[in-house]
Amino acid sequence: RMYNRFTKIKDTTRYQKGMIHISGLSEGRTAPVLSLIAGESGRPLMVITSSQARARGLYEDLSYFSKLPVLLLPEDDRFFLSYDAKSHGDLEGRLGAMIRLSRGEPCIVIAAAQSALKKLMPSELFRRQRLVLEAGEVYALSGLKALLGKMGYEKTERVEAKGQYSLRGDILDVFPYDRQDPVRVEFFDDTVDSIRSFQADTQRSGEGLERVALFPAHLLWYDDQTRENARQKLTKAYDRQALRLEGEAKAQLLERKEQLLELIETGRNNQSLSEYVSYFYSEPETLVDYMDQRGILILEDFVRTKERLSFSDKESKEDFQILLEKGRVTAEDFPSFTKSDILMHIAEGRERLVYLLTPFGGALKGSLQPREIVSVRTRPIPGFSGKMDFFLEEMRRYQREGFEVVIICSSGEREENIRNFLGRNDIFFPRIVTGQLSGGSEYTDEKLALISDNDIFPSHKVKKTKAQRKDAKPIRTFVDIQRGDYVVHESHGIGRFVEIQQLEIEGHKRDYLKIQYAGEDVLYVPVDQMDSVQKYIGSEGTAPRINKLSSGEWKKTKEKVKTAIQQMARELLELSAARLSMPGYGFSPDTLWQAEFEDQFPYVETEDQLRCVREIKEDMERPVPMDRLLCGDVGYGKTEV
To answer: How far apart are CA 41 and CA 295, in angstroms?
Structure first.
């Protein structure tokens, strides 16, 4: 019933190809529309966003709205970080999306552009390598064992994780990447007698199956001829690059060549080799190519996505140039990377249905010519912050204007509380359900309001304050730093935080902060020295230039800043002396009205907030011009103070 209000958008799902431009959608207002498109079309949907954080937020909202399987593609590590195998979870997420899209089954795959456009083996080759086991069919068990190993499945005593198999007599257990539970295939001689799912932890049998399809369990598949071609291409490229290098750089490149040739020969760590996909296939593809022409592509906030991808490409090229000089890569390695022009090529394609979602209206630039434009008027639900009279006022407005209202609550208890509160005030028309939603939205033309309980109640947790010793020192942690954030080391400059990693040095295990610098330079900082590292805070939307280790660049930067600060200090002293000589206005001390105003603040202030308020009041009561700067991170209460 809710989706019936979006008649203009529902009409666009009848198309099989072409571009549809929907304006007015961003943040929390996007998920309901995407769920509508996916449900109405009955086709696979792939959503490309500007960042992994945005992809994660959209995934959480869509998991509530859509009844279809929703998959979040893992973040794609930068090629320069490591040559080691990536995590099993990342492989599971990517292979799960590849399999579902290859099958053409209805689902929603959400991915940041950098991850969505990663080069993969050709989709047709991936589909061709699947193994289908059917009840009543004959298979040689010895051949199956060899084939599963070639497909990337790991042999274990007991199947516990995806990508594993075990063979005990006439029983084959295997855990495909596209299923929630492993399957057990029982043979009678070489004939499949039965197939059924089972629970990995309890071994309890589940539903019976007529057939099961097993897709490759790694990102790179090759036969003997493809292996030989890749070996020859890589050898030629690395030998040619070695002729341009000397000394240590040349030695490192030749050593790297031997490592890669060994991986190609043994087939170990195919996940790492997938970064060299261009040596194996003349025309590698992206995840978009794994959808057939029925699949629908969604490009969310296309302009921002393209800008971020362009910046990432530029940064990758700069890092790649450093690696070339150090003898770690060849020029032929670079075609494996994502390029921003791939996104334009996909957007301009006319062979499938493509939706461009933008926050604002207006004509699209360049060759992006939509067959239809749909404008959706939306606005976020105002934050009521526990002000229930304001909430009631909005409910009555919605009732007067004929809105359909759905309130999504995170728990049954909160659902019951809101229902009782509205009932006591004679408001019964909203539909109140249990679920998770990051934030609400109002669709003006459709007369629909979706409200999250986060919009109604304060999201802050009220806590008691306690006296703090003046000589106390705050504990500093890295809980607010995410993987990929820029950080500043006081001695080495700006780098990118990768992870906290445990290393064993001279028999002692310690935790270290792993920080990536330009090229493949890596710095490990012991966690007990983390006070030497700070989170980088710069202009919003502008990424800093990453420094090289031991280049002297950071030292020069600090010298320039030191000189500039000294000059600024002189100017500030002169300005301060001039201001102090001028008369100022002294405000009166607090009155009862001021105390009543402060009591209405819905949260308990922190000690630092109270201290800042007290110091500002003292300044304002003095008969001299106030000269004070209030500093704090985003969301730390500067406006309230």
So the answer is: 9
